[in-house]
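Appendix B. Raw example, untouched.
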Amino acid sequence: MTFLPFLFSREFPTNILMVGNEIGRLPPQFQDASKVANAIMDLGEGFEFDQGRMFYNQFKSVVSYKTREIEIFPVRVINEAEKLTTYDSIDADVLQSYAEYSLASLIYYALKEGACSEQSSRMTAMDSSSKNAGETSSSSKSEITIFPYLLLLCLKLYNIGSRE
C-alpha cells in the first residue's frame, strides 16, 4: 500500500500533513501509538481543527470485522466543553496531558483492533488454503490408487485379446 500516499499527495497535495510508514507491521505497542499521537498534536501553528475522525477495523469474529470510526477532538474543543466546569482543578497542563493520553489510547486501541482483524484474516486464509491442499492431496491419492487397477484391467484385457 505504499502507492496510496503518492496517489493522494498527487491529487490532494494541500490536504496531507504527514505520512506514517511501518505502522502496524509489528505487533502494536503503546509507544508506537504515543509517537503517532505526539506527531498529530505537534502539527504546529498553521493547522487547527475542530473535530477529526479515525477509521479502524473492529474485530467481530474470526470471519468478520467492521469498519468503525472514532472522533478526535483537539485541546481547544475539549476546553470549551460544557461539563468540564464540573471538575474543580483543570488547568491547561492537565488538559493538555489528558488530550495527549486520550489520543494515544484511542490510536493504540485502533491499532490493536486492526491487528486482531488482520490476524483473523490470515488465520482464515491459512485454514482455507490447508483445506484446499488437503482436498487436492486426497483427490490425487485416489487417482494414484485407481491407476494400478486400470493397469491390471488393461493387462487382463490384453491377455484375453492375445489368446484369441
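End of appendix B.
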